[in-house]
Amino acid sequence: MTEIKGISVDEWKKKICEEAERLRPQLIELSHSIHDEPEIGFQEFKSSAKICDFLEKQGFETERDYCDLPTSFKAVKKGTGKGPVVAFLAEYDALRGVGHGCGHNLHGSLSVLTGLALKDLKEFYRGKVHVIGTPAEEENGAKIGMAAQGIFDNMSLAMMMHSWSGGKCRADMDALSLQCYFVEFYGQAAHAVAAPWEGKSALAAARKFLDLIDARRECFTPDVHVNSIILDGGKAPNIIPDYVKLRMEFRTATMKSMGAVDEMVKKCADGAAMALDCTVKFTSVFEFADMVRNMTLEEEIIRQFEAFGMPTTGVEAASGSSDVGNVSYRCPAIQPLLAVTDEDYALHTAAFRDATALPQAEEAMEKGACILALTALRTFNDEAFRNKVYAEFQEQVEKRK
Length: 401
What we know:
By secondary structure, the chain is of the alpha/beta class. It has helices at residues 9-36, 45-57, 104-119, 142-148, 202-216, 255-275, 295-307, 324-328, 350-355, 359-381, 383-400; strands spanning 3-4, 7-8, 61-64, 73-78, 85-90, 128-133, 157-159, 162-164, 177-186, 190-191, 225-232, 239-240, 243-252, 279-288, 333-334, 337-339.
């Protein structure tokens, strides 16, 4: 494609980049402000307010406490008429004990900058730009509940970039599906010496449950990972525990394969409980979906990275989970990884936290916002591209059912 609405792509790029460059100092200030006052998931009151205040001053219509989440928001800017809806997802929660070691201060501000870069070009597209504040990605993942409420249904595109390191960007971040449970065993308390025969050990049942999971590991497919911790293992060693609580997470390559692992886990729990004359209860904490990848979108993002002189490398096999995956089951979605530093830093570290406030990261933020804005502009105005993206989305979701 060489033109959008009669204007050359190069001219569009110039318009977007000029707008991003003009706004960049304000967004750097916002990023630094969020960086310096880190707030953990669902407690991001200051961060959320700062972003909302800023967007309102820039002419966006905002709705705070969006989806009944006190630190969420939706900010909307309309084009010249009815048309597609494109959402930019903003994260701003920090890590306990580390601060912004995952770069949410930077890529959250990047999503805001993307929305603003399109704000004054609204006469050149039909539709709506949404900037959606999505709290607690590091905790229970607010996007999970948002997606379940249907706010992304029928959108043409939802996207964000995630901060990364090592000098090479990636077109998308693959993700594993993840189920998190509280698993509670109930037994009968008794004195461990005076009358142990009157007891039914919830701890023994929980231990046998974990043993049974371990016995199944040799038959796991490579994508299956099961991990647990004991949150409550009893109150005193001389009392047979009548209650034990575990937190368990297990991951699979797709939601489609999650059901078989879920069944296996519950069989192990039921067997252990039955053998020890106990009962067991599962309570779902959250469920992250795998990422429904879209090759049409990924090819567009790679093309944009290359046009901005940003080196790329292939999408790695999934080794973690993200609540963007839940969005990707509802509408076309993408989460490119933006290299904000040439040095290799592990995420969730103090070193990476500090790197997100350096000039190189700020320059990358500006380029990343331009890339997302240009991708959104093409989605608004190139019907053939938009239809191809949506058709691939539908096909990939159907395969996962």
